[in-house]
Amino acid sequence: MRKVELRMNEQNKYEIIKKLVETNGNKKRAATRLGCTVRTINRLIIKYKEQGKKGFVHGNRGRLPASAVPLDMKNKIISLYINDFSDANFTHFCEIVESDFGIKISDTTLNSWMRAEDVLSPKARRKTKKALKKKLKDRMNDTASEKVRNEIKESINILD
């Protein structure tokens, strides 16, 4: 039998229900402590009796969201933009990706991916460029490696 690890809120529910079942305590008081109804407490008691500690683990734990883009596809899209389509704005690139590769992503998602890679759209405004430049300068001040500092300086010069 595997050991079940509960998160803090799950552990709290488990302990309250366990004590309730063992001492035959007050369900209303347990409901107010957990911030739920007596009906929910009854359901948790049934789960506790049937499954034990395992019944308090959330059902979606360890699964990726249905809307998540696989990591290899994300990296492919990022490298495709950087290498081949860097002159296109993000909205146009999203349309290209959808028509050519059949992958539908929003321009907002692409924007957040690209900002993580320190890549801006050609349509980026002055405020956005200034913020990126400040972020790069801060990173350059924190870095000891001369090679990395030179790469960051090149990126800053491109923004000017």
Structure, explained:
The protein is mainly alpha-helical and 160 residues long. The chain is built from eight helices and no strands. Helix 2 crosses helix 3. The longest helix is centred in the last third of the chain and has 17 residues, at 126-142. It is elongated.
What is the subunit arrangement here? single chain
| Residue windows where pLDDT falls under 50 for at least 5 positions | none
| Overall average residue pLDDT | 91
Specify Rg, calculated over alpha carbons.
26 Å
Helix content: 55-70%
Percent in strands: under 5%
Specify the overall morphology: elongated
User: What's the total count of β strands?
Assistant: 0
The end-to-end distance, rounded to whole angstroms, is 61 Å
The SSE order reads HHHHHHHH
Structural class: mainly alpha
Characterize the main sheet.
none
The number of helical elements comes to 8
Which terms would index this structure?
mainly alpha; 160 residues
What can be said about this structure in brief?
The protein is mainly α. It contains 8 helices and no strands.
Task: List the topology elements.
Elements: H1 8-23, H2 27-34, H3 38-51, H4 71-84, H5 90-101, H6 107-116, H7 126-142, H8 146-159
Helix pairs in contact: 1-2, 1-3, 2-3, 5-6, 7-8
